[in-house]
Amino acid sequence: MSADIKPIGIFDSGVGGLTVLKVLRERLPGERFLYLGDTARLPYGSKSATTVRRYALNAAAHLVARDVKLLVVACNTASSEALGEVTAASPVPVVGVVEPGVRAAIATGARRIGVIGTEGTVRSEAYQRALARLAPEVHVRAEPCPLFVPLAEEGWGDHPVTDEIACHYLGPLLDWGAEALILGCTHYPLLKPSLRRVVGPKVMLVDSASSVAEAVTGDHSELMSPSRGDDGDVHIELTDASDRFLRILRAILGRDPEHLEVVDIAGVA
Amino acid sequence: MSADIKPIGIFDSGVGGLTVLKVLRERLPGERFLYLGDTARLPYGSKSATTVRRYALNAAAHLVARDVKLLVVACNTASSEALGEVTAASPVPVVGVVEPGVRAAIATGARRIGVIGTEGTVRSEAYQRALARLAPEVHVRAEPCPLFVPLAEEGWGDHPVTDEIACHYLGPLLDWGAEALILGCTHYPLLKPSLRRVVGPKVMLVDSASSVAEAVTGDHSELMSPSRGDDGDVHIELTDASDRFLRILRAILGRDPEHLEVVDIAGVA
To answer: N or C end: fewer C-beta atoms under 10 angstroms in chain B?
Structure first.
C-alpha cells in the first residue's frame, strides 16, 4: 500500500482521544484514520507506569499490524509514560500529545503554566520536563485531578458539582498565579464550561488537539495525502463497546460512527 | 492438599473487595485466604457484560489454579453479570455477593428496597431478579451511581461534594420511599458517612460483607478448617500495584499487607 492511502493510526485509552481525531479530520480531510480506544482496560491514569507501558505497546503493535503510516498517541498518560518505548518499538513515526501541548502553552506567552492531568501523567513529570527543555524561563506546577475523567464520562462538564471539584483541584494553581493551564488529558476539553467558570476569563485553557494536528501536518508532511477532493474514511476500533462508551463516543463525534468494530488487543506485542 | 489447609479464594475487580475479606477473616480466623484484585483492568462496572464475563473467568481460573477450596466473587458487577458462567466453569463451590446482600435486605423487614450499584450491576437486573424470587412481595428500584467508585477511591467518603452527588443519585429512591438501601458495590461502604447524612437516620444501609460471611460459613461448613488457635495467613495478589491502589488497600486493611504480589491473569481461562 502506498503511504498516500495508508491510514493514520490514533490510539487512546478510551474515547476521549476522539477530540484529537476530530481536529485531525478537519485539518486533513483527504486522510484515512484508524482510531483505537482501549476501553476494556481504561483508565490508564490511575495505573502503574509498568502497566501503562505494556498496554501502550499492545495498542501500538495492533495499529502497526493494521498498516498505519503514522501513529498518534492521543492518550496523555501513555504519551507521558510510554512515548519512548512506543517510538523505539514502532517502524513508523510516532507523535505524542505532550510536546504539542507544551508548544501551544508556550505560544500563549504565559510565564506561569499550570498542568492538570491524571495521576500517571503528573507523576511521570513528562510535561514538567518538556517545559524545562523548551522554555527554561517558564515556571511550571502540576496537579493531578483524578475525578475529572469520571465527571467528563458522566456528562457533567457544565455542572455545579464539577465547578466545586474544580475549585478544589485548581485552587492551588490559581493561588500560585497560573496564567495558562494545560488540559493534560483528552477528556478535559469536555469540562471546559465548568473549568472556564472556575479559572475566570484571564487564565488561558490550552488543549493539545490543535497543536497535535500541527505536529502531524508540519513534521510529517511527506506522509500526507494530496487532497483527493473526497472525504477519507474513519474506522473506530474499541476493545469494549459498552453502552456507556458508545454514548460518550456519540457525544464527542456528534453522530453515530460509520465503521465501528470491537477488537481484542490484550497480549499483542 | 487437604481441604482444611487450602485457602479460600476471593476475587474483586480491585481492592474494594477487601471489605469482604476483612469480615471473613474476623469470622473465620483459622482460614487461609488468597485475594485477587484485577486492578490492571478495573473498573468492571462501566464495561460490557461480554468483557466482564471474560475477566471474571480469567480471575476464577487463576484462583482455581492456585488450589483454592472455595471461590468468593466479591465484585458485585462480576457477581451480577458472570456468576452463572463462573460457577459452571469452577470445580470448587462459588459464592457471589448478590444473594447474600438480598437476604440481608429482606431480613430488615423493609417493604421497599432500593439497590445502588455500578451501571453493569443495575443493567444486569441480578438484584431485582433475586429479590423477586426470594421476596416477591417486596418492591424494588435500582439506580446506577457511576461516580461513587471514583469518590471512594479519592478518599471522599465523608465530603460535602459526595453528599451533593449522593443527593442527586439517591433523590429518586428516597422520593419513592425506600426503607432499605442495598450497597451493591464493595466500594460503597467507604462512603457510609456521606450516605448516612443523605438518607437520614431511618433508611437502613445494607452491605453484603457480613451476609457473605454467613453464606460461606453456613452453606459450606464442611470445607471450613477447625479453629487451629492460630491466625491463618492472607495473600493478596493484584494485577497492577500503582501507589493509588496500595494507598486504598492500606486504608481498608488499616495496615500494610503481609504478602503482596503482582500477577498477570490476562488471557488465563
So the answer is: N
